[in-house]
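Protein Entry — a single chain follows
Fields — amino acid sequence, structure tokens
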Amino acid sequence: MLLVAAVNFRGVGESVKANVVLTCIELSGLLLVILVGLYAATGGKADFSRVTVFDTSGDKSVFLAVTAGASLAFFAMVGFEDAVNMAEETHDPVRTFPRMMLTGISITGVIYLLVAVFSVALVPVGELGEGDTPLTKVVSAGLPDFPVDAVMPFIAMFAVANSALINMLMASRLVYGMARQEVLPPVLGRVHSGRRTPWVAILFTTAVALGLIVLVTENSGDAVAALGGTTALLLLGVFTIVNIAVLVLRRDPIDRDHFVTPTVLPVVGAVACFFFTLPVTGRDTVQYVIAAWLLAIGVVLWAVTWTANRAIRGKRTYLRDPEELSGDDTVS
């Protein structure tokens, strides 16, 4: 996390380059699973009949089992929502960003689907669910002589680092933006004079991340599942609001070309995302506890800012149009 913070402080350019390298390493692990699956399938080692068989634990229905799986798998798609924070870095965001976003999601979806199909075809679902290294089991089943114990943990480490880098990069910029909007304490909007990066926001988000790591590791049997599940839970809540906001904001007249999504998509998105936040998906209670604490921290920071704005500056606390913001605190 400290290394991620250092790269984040260095700047967006350096962070993006590191992200590209880490993504290539991460992608190599997924492609390895797919290639091993293809090799095993040609040798008759794969049983694709297991792909359409639903084995549920206890008295859980197939619908709830699929719902729980989808809710957990949502964490695999974390990161795409962060890309919107970097849209203005492109030459033609109105045209380029929606196309690249949809293309990226489609490619990723195909890769994840192939990984899931070959994983189940090579290793029974019950065995995949035992332990913390399911993909290692898949590669070992399809290619027993491959040094999987040396390669897969190495790739997994970089995959986790990549997710951390992306989330911390965007979290610091989000906090910076809210501070510039005077919704959070203004100190979080300070920019380093040399690197032009929001160094206070970077320190704050890193401190929160380290605190969560320590807290969850000491109080949860599976820290990765707890933090990953909490991330998915909070993002699903955010996406519920964002999809509703799409329906509201599209009423505003805009005198330029812009991307317009079909009405049915935000409606389905809002309903689906809200449903996946409910306890019926089988979420661990600790995820709701962590989410509540994080929301409480945000509310306290907002309340402090609101009080200071009212009592000291005599100003309202609200989100303004970005064009109304002024100053030289541009970030890199």
